């Protein structure tokens, strides 16, 4: 009886491992590439401000029900997906509205409030991706809803936001989104640096806008025999 139980247990384990390996084989992985951008916009009692960074790292992997080609037919619903994008805090720089660098002092204040020494990355852990609307043409994006955990300054906060994903062909994707957050959600006190003319008071609400470019990696070339 014990032998039968032992054999049955091992068979079940082998079956589970086999199914897990099969599921992993069906996932397609895309890695971050150049051309990405993240922008943060906020307010203060002096003027509006904006910060930009052009480095978004990480990866996204998707299952066979993900529309990876332009105009591909797709049915609304949950999609098998996992993603771990991140932004290095020190890659973010304050800019003028025309894109010119704004202030090194503002950058240092931002890094301090984002606790860059202890938390050098802003990370997002995707937990659920749902297709809301298929692409209306080959040049149009697919409308998704993304749920996940955003980690800023070492504090984790659940986030739900709309995301557009545009297959570009050639195994590349453009993932774009916009959402509004509050600094206080991450236990960040809105900066209020003192200046010669008084104190700047920063608003709690911040708008996040991003374009994340990802692509599949080509397999390594086989050495000629």
Question: How do the helices and strands follow one another from N- to C-terminus?
Answer: HEEEEEEEEHEEEEEEE
CATH superfamily grouping: Lipid/polyisoprenoid-binding, YceI-like
Determine the mean pLDDT: 87
User: In DSSP terms, counting alpha (H) and pi (I) runs of 4 or more, how many helices?
Assistant: 2
Q: Which second-level CATH architecture applies?
A: Beta Barrel
Morphology: elongated
Termini separation: 54 Å
User: Which structural category do the helix and sheet elements fall into?
Assistant: alpha+beta
List the helices and strands and how they pair.
Elements: H1 2-25, E1 28-32, E2 37-42, E3 49-53, E4 59-62, E5 77-79, E6 81-83, E7 86-88, E8 93-95, H2 104-113, E9 121-133, E10 142-152, E11 155-169, E12 172-182, E13 194-195, E14 198-199, E15 205-215
Antiparallel strand pairs: 1-4, 1-15, 2-3, 2-15, 3-8, 4-6, 5-9, 7-9, 9-10, 10-11, 11-12, 12-15, 13-14
């Amino acid at each position: 009886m014990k032998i039968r139980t032992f054999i049955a247990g091992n068979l079940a384990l082998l079956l589970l491992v086999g199914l897990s390996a099969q599921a992993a084989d069906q996932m397609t992985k895309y890695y971050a590439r150049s051309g990405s951008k993240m922008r943060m916009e906020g307010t203060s009692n002096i003027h509006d401000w904006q910060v930009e960074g052009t480095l978004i790292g990480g990866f996204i992997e998707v299952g066979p029900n993900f529309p990876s080609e332009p105009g591909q037919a797709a049915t609304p619903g949950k999609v098998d997906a996992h993603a771990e994008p991140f932004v290095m805090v020190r890659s973010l720089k304050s800019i003028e509205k025309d894109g010119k660098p704004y202030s090194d002092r503002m950058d240092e204040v931002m890094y301090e409030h984002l606790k860059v020494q202890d938390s050098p990355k802003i990370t997002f852990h995707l937990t659920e991706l749902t297709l809301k609307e298929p692409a209306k043409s080959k040049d149009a994006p697919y409308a998704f809803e993304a749920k996940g955990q955003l980690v800023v300054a070492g504090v984790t906060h659940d986030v739900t936001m709309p995301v557009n994903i545009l297959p570009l062909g050639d195994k590349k994707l453009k993932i774009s989104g916009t959402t509004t957050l509050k600094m206080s959600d991450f236990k960040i006190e809105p900066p209020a640096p003192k200046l010669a003319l008084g104190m700047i008071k920063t608003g709690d609400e911040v708008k996040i806008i991003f374009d994340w470019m990802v692509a599949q990696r080509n397999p390594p070339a086989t050495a000629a025999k």
